[in-house]
Structures are given as C-alpha cells and as structure tokens.
Design brief:
The complex is a heterodimer of chains A (218) and B (173). Chain A is mainly α and 218 residues long. Chain A contains eleven helices and no strands. Helix content of chain A is 52%, strand content 0%. Chain B is 20% helix and 34% strand. In chain B, β2 and β3 form a beta hairpin. Classes of the chains: A mainly alpha (218), B alpha+beta (173).
C-alpha cells in the first residue's frame, strides 16, 4: 500500500512537469544547528574518521589524489557537506554512499574531529600573476565579484560561518570545485553565491586562484 | 545663580518644543499605532532559503494580477539576490526584502527607493521609477569586510517596452 503511494507520487511529480526547485541545501544555520555542530564529540568522531583516512589522510602518498584534505577545516563546513551528500544537495559517487550510513550525530562528531587536526602542509606555488592577488584582496567591481578574502579570509583561513578554509588545500581539488560551481554541477551554495562569483571568472583565473590558495601556509 | 529673563524665556520655549515633539511621537506610536515601515513582519533569517516566500526559485520580479510589480529580494553578505533585475518605469513596484545574515541597507541612488533590511524581519517598500536607465542597487549599512562590493544592477526600461522585456527575462534568478 505504502509503495503504491510513493509510486503515485513519483508519477504525479513527473507528469506535472517542472515542480518547485529544491532548495540548494537543507541545512539552516539556526542557533540550535550551530550548537549541535559545536558540541560534536571529537573522540567519537576519531573512530568514524579511521575509515575516512584511507582517502583523506594528510600523508605524502595522498598528496596527488583527487580527494581533499579535511584536517583543520571548519566543523560547520564539514557538517554541511556531509549533510548535503546525504540529502542529495551535493552529488559524488563515493560520498553519497558513505554519508547515507551516517547519522546527524556521527556527522557532527567526525566534523569536530577533523576540525581539530593540524592542517596539511602548503605546497608553495611560484609565479602567481599579480591579477590574482588583486582578485583576492580587492575583487573586481566591474564584474560584481567581491574579493575572496572577505569571506574566505586574507590567509584563506575562513571568515564567516560555513565558508571553507582554503589555505593549503590541494590545488587540483580547489580548481575542480570551482569548475564544478561554474558548470552548475555543484549547486549546494545558498542563493547561488559561489556560482555567481565563479561564473564571472575565466578558467585560467580559476586555475591560478587554486594554485594561490594551495600555496598559503596555515 | 542668575539667569537673564530673556534666556529663561528661550529655555522654556525650547523645552515646550521638545515636549510637543515627544508628545507627537508617543501619540502616533501608542494611540494611532504608527510605526516605522519595517520591523513588523518577522521571518527566520537563518532558514530563509527554506521558507516559502524567499526560497531560491521564488526570488525575482513577479507581475501581480492587478498589473503592479512585486520584487522578492534577498540581501546576504555580499550581494543582493537576484544579481540583476529589470523593471518598468512609471509602474508601482513593491519590494519585499529579507536579510539572510546581518543588518543590510538597500538604496538605489537618484530614486527614493531605500530601506534598512533588518535580520529577522521582512522589509517592504513600494516605489515608482520615473526614468528608464541603469541603476546600481547598493548596500548602505556596513555589513562586513565585503560591504563596499555589495551591489546589484537594476535596469529600468520604458513602460511601453516592458511586456516584451519581461517575457525575455528569466524570472526567478
């Protein structure tokens, strides 16, 4: 009986054409959610993190892989991404499957653990064009692009709420992430904030910005 | 202490004027229930994107059945969403604006469109743009490091060319 309802719902939704678009994320930073993430149990998170380390460890063997570093990332950002994978707001073959097995409490715990780990070493990049420094510090008024620094911090250390730490992240991951925002493949930024910015940038600017932030020491 | 009689008269006069002003404010606020235009309709700023009115696909310019225009707008660090809107001149436009984070202001220079956007409340303001043109929409309350980059584009088109323009415009973003 229940299955029938679900099926009917799917058929109805499909036959009604475009229905209201899903919100970009189900996470809302209410004081309760913030407190929930802040009170994540890092010790319990350590246990969960053991299985994450296979791909996300900050070891030299992992430096060339496509998987991002999580060490020293803000707990709010990590929690939101896990939540978004589980709710379908962000897609990734591997992470959607993994997050499905995590409860909200598990997510808060593992986020707490990773946020307290020492950050990975930066990979110094040589010859960053001056225009990139300008974009980071002063933005570009003509394109309505705010400086990266106002949200992500001058040193890529993150500024407000759930904007991620960028410093010392893998350049390849940063570039791939910005390109995903640009093509709308990634769309879990509230009110399209990051997509609107990145869509104003050229692929070359994206590449250089990724190198710039990967080279910042934490 | 000696106070000159003329000075005394001026003091009384000034006190009387201050008294009249205060009485007027308290009378309108308490007896007539007149308050500033915002601060009346509460909304949860943290979950704005999950609300019915300010959901991401509900933002933008909407023509009401009576021909007036409604603009649903979100102010968030650091921008107004949607980023660019087109509006007709000479038509009443009602803006409904909410903040997703901190205190913002909205101001379109050379028009009388301006209001504060207080987190937790919906700001509503109705105005008519007399002249077509391109206007910036600026934040005029300091909201953080990116405050001076917080602006959007408003294109006001002549009333005659509005229906075509509105049809060509992707609504919602």
């Amino acid at each position: 009986m229940k299955k029938g309802y679900v099926l009917a719902g799917i058929v109805l939704a499909a036959s009604n054409g475009p229905i209201a678009a899903e919100p970009s994320t189900q996470v809302a930073w209410t004081p309760e959610t913030l407190a929930f993430v802040r009170n994540g149990d890092a010790e319990k998170g350590k246990k969960i993190a053991e299985s994450c380390e296979a791909c996300h460890a900050a070891t030299p063997e992992n430096a060339e892989s496509e998987f991002p570093y999580l060490q020293g990332q803000t707990a709010t950002y990590l929690y939101k991404q896990l939540h978004d994978y589980k709710s379908g707001s962000r897609s990734n073959e591997i992470m959607v499957g993994i997050s499905a097995g995590l409860s909200d409490q598990d997510m808060a715990d593992v986020s707490a653990w990773y946020s307290r780990q020492p950050p990975p070493p930066a990979k110094k990049a040589d010859e960053i064009p001056d225009t990139i420094g300008k974009l980071v510090d002063r933005g570009d008024g003509a394109r309505i692009v705010a400086p990266c620094a106002v949200c992500h911090g001058r040193a890529g250390e993150s500024q407000v709420l759930d904007t991620p730490v960028l410093a010392a992240q893998k350049a390849a991951y940063l570039e791939q992430t910005m390109l995903a925002y640009k093509s709308e493949a990634r769309h879990n930024d509230i009110y399209r904030r990051m997509r609107l910015i990145v869509q104003q940038l050229s692929d070359e600017e994206i590449k250089q910005l990724a190198r710039y932030y990967a080279g910042l020491e934490r | 202490m000696h106070i000159h009689p003329l000075e005394k008269r001026w003091i009384y006069l000034v006190l009387a004027v201050v008294g009249i002003f205060l009485a007027a404010i308290f009378y309108t606020a308490l007896a007539r229930n007149i308050h500033p235009p915002s601060h009346i309709e509460p909304i949860d700023s943290a979950s704005l994107h999950l609300s019915a009115e300010f959901a991401e696909d509900k933002l933008g310019v909407w023509t009401q059945p009576d021909g007036t225009i409604r603009v649903t707008l979100v102010a968030a660090r650091y921008g107004f969403y949607p980023r660019e809107i087109r509006l007709p001149a000479g038509t009443p436009v009602t803006f409904r604006i909410a903040s997703a984070d901190v205190l913002h202001g909205v101001h379109i220079p050379m028009t009388n469109m301006g209001t504060m956007v207080v987190p937790g409340y919906v700001s509503e303001i109705t105005t008519t743009f007399p002249k077509p043109g391109e206007y910036p929409m600026l934040c005029n309350e300091y909201c953080g490091l990116g405050h001076d980059h917080m602006w959007s584009k408003v294109t006001v088109v002549a009333k005659e060319s509005w229906p075509e323009a509105s049809a060509a415009q992707p609504i919602g973003r």
